[in-house]
């Protein structure tokens, strides 16, 4: 076959680069490099500048604790990290799937990747407004974000007045105020009876519902994700209202089963019947038998959501819930003490899919119901009224190895210890200086129970690697969560006035091998992140552990004193009382 000879392509003469071309090329390269460093994790190592490395810090602290001369200080994080949340970091979350809002759940850095630096306060930060004034106003500069005020001010959420944010007490479904709304609910729910003590508010906004439920002696765990309503949980905690960053997505919420006497949703926009009813079944896991479920807003009698509303009513009926009332766009159901209706059996998990319904740390949601025990015994009607239930050992305790006698001894022990903290160690419990308190290793909640007459609320944290006693805490009428202290806690920086931990070294130890799963410095840097400037830390542990903690406290700018334990105690514990200094980033 013959070949066709094509003429060679015409090419113009190559033009030599000019200085302008070279400058444009380098400018483009710099812009590309800047975007890579800002928008990807590649820039994280450079953000620390000339700060000592993680290995250098840990080595120096270990050397100092062993009697060596190693001295080191932990530097401040970059000023743009004033609201840094390691496990709810938008840069990290954006890489995950949107399916079932997976990207809005916890996604923590791998161990050792969390920056060892101290989160600075924002410019103009002041010591927060004390409780109870903080329910109604907070300092604007402590979180200068006006997005919610601009978008929700007409609904009574919040507004700016001078140097304050003001909270009129309203919400999307109760623009005239939470007090009127709660009075409306009280027509159908025995809110003032003492039966109801623990509540869960899903998608809570700035938590005005929970704030005003406190007047009824009902303590509400309010939660919302870190989302487009910037810092809503941060506002709630600044106000002194119990709150927590969480997302109902693909995992169980980190609470024990049958914990809440009341579950509330005010325009929370959770698709309860989606994914085979998975989300309503999770609510059913959390709601105490005999408790109440309130849903205000979509889909209840909502235009263009007739099918969703019908599906919700049908699913609630199949779970044997009694529909108490539909008042406008508010529906109220009562959960049965025990599910006796025939159709409920269709939702039981098969025997091959059985689990402990109180396991909830990174636990995948289910679209079936785990058959529980003692549902009648722990039902709302069978618990003592508040406040008697605080000191009553519940029927869930005998199921544990320790037993009710340990519950009683633990309660008395913490009454003595708290009195010692106040009278001998000068801790400001019971004053306006302390409102938001956390017990990082709560066991039965004895520390929180001993503070019940103080103007505080306590987040009781039960380590997920230890005995799961959170259900006992809720049966007492207290609140709390599961957590692993080798990860960051789901809250904003500067949200607690006092952190308490008994046995801090046990938080990082593997229960089987006894080996450390992370370093004590990781825990203390995280404590510094969530502690307010001039906040207080109380740590109890052995002499050797307290010696290590003292060195770390110095490295993270805390002032501290070490004390002997109470005269009545028979162990060799020491008590470290530290204060976070109020420093500013330059």
TrEMBL record:
Pfam families: Methyltransf_29 (PF03141). Gene3D superfamilies: Vaccinia Virus protein VP39 (3.40.50.150). It is a single-pass membrane protein; Single-pass type II membrane protein. Its EC number is 2.1.1.-. The keyword RNA-binding does not apply. It comes from the Eukaryota. Its main location: membrane. It is found in: Endomembrane system; Membrane. It is an enzyme of class 2 (transferase). Keywords: Glycoprotein, Methyltransferase, Signal-anchor, Transferase, Transmembrane. GO terms for cellular component: endosome; membrane; trans-Golgi network. One of its GO terms (molecular function) is S-adenosylmethionine-dependent methyltransferase activity. GO terms for biological process: methylation. Belongs to the methyltransferase superfamily. PANTHER family: PECTIN METHYLTRANSFERASE QUA3-RELATED, SAM-DEPENDENT METHYLTRANSFERASE. This is Methyltransferase. It comes from Rhynchospora pubera.
